[in-house]
Amino acid sequence: MTAATTSSTRAADRADELALLGLVGQLELVAFTRLAEDSALAPSLDQRLRLARFSAGAVSRLERIFERITELGGSPEAEVERFAHVMDDFDARTPSSTWWERLLKAYVGYGVADDFCKAAAAGLDDRTRTLVEEVLDGTHHGELVLAELAAASADDAVLTSRLALWGRRLVGESLGVVQSLVQSQPGLARLVADGAAVEARASGAEPAAGPGPTPAEALSTLFGRLTAEHTRRMGRLGLTA
Amino acid sequence: MTAATTSSTRAADRADELALLGLVGQLELVAFTRLAEDSALAPSLDQRLRLARFSAGAVSRLERIFERITELGGSPEAEVERFAHVMDDFDARTPSSTWWERLLKAYVGYGVADDFCKAAAAGLDDRTRTLVEEVLDGTHHGELVLAELAAASADDAVLTSRLALWGRRLVGESLGVVQSLVQSQPGLARLVADGAAVEARASGAEPAAGPGPTPAEALSTLFGRLTAEHTRRMGRLGLTA
């Protein structure tokens, strides 16, 4: 029965991998739409053009995810569709009322989702892991946000403290999205546990043949990391997390 | 003084050419935003993805226009900026209330603007003329619209007659946009007259060394052609123009 068990384990792994790629694809599709809206609302033509390019870039990255899903024998549309409403709640709970709030929301809110996907990809095969990292790091959008927000808040203490508060709201809501994702999609929770085990062994925190962290430990590590990355992002903006 | 006159004429031609490229660039930027909105509103994931790809394609085409403006010694942003609000009136006057109305608006309303640009490009150097034609024909968006609208209106006489009415509204408003463009931008009116002269000579309607049509004749030919193209488009949709 060993062969059958191994084969069924492999099929489950493959399904989990496809689910993660579907989530990343959905995030790129959401990013495309959001960046196009940002572009339409941008206060200057220069920003409008830059955001239009970022938005088009999200479609290119989506195509790379689709290619990989197809290579792995999955249906790109089916995998993306299952996360159709993943950011809807987050968006409904965090309506941004100014251009600055929109920019911070993109940087902070979606940053958490990106970090989650990277953590879940850590235990996957090299090609998928590298693809997920490249796709999620590929926007260069952070630099625009950073420059804009740093310039705007440099001499404006009221804006700075409003944005710090907004950042805390955003991180709370986006950690909530991650929480409900790992609860509703056991495959993603398994990937997070696998990724944590790979990283614990690589760092020497666990013996190479050890059982790795428990699922609860893996999730706790994950949330710790997501929060630390958030604090680092807010720090780069000169905002208190 | 002949050399100076020639040089100043050339500079004027160049300025007109840059203005047309700026208009085409602006139309691509507007198309990017509009198609991204269409994508966000699309009733199925398949349509959402196709429209996202069309939207990203508009950004690629915009880059080609920018390269040409730069080659010709112009500033892409300045040329695009001068047409910043070219479609605002049209959009404000034609709020589409359904998905079908949105699709028809894209196909019919922007089709007129595209045809206008092609007519104005007809007298330009080969590279710019070919670029404008390729860029404006490059969306393939028409096929999606055609398939969607044909399928939706095939068994729905009420929808068909509403869309026919909507098409007449759209063409009226978009011819109004063209009218105000040729009035407010004398350079574009000159290009239309040049294009009409080139085409009249090519077709044998005017002798090769003849003066070509008068500006009034050129505009009358233009509006005749825009209307004929509109009728052809509506016909492809099975709608009465």
UniProtKB/TrEMBL annotation, chains A, B:
Residues 19-194 form the Ferritin-like domain. InterPro entries: Ferritin-like, Ferritin_actino. This is Ferritin-like domain-containing protein.
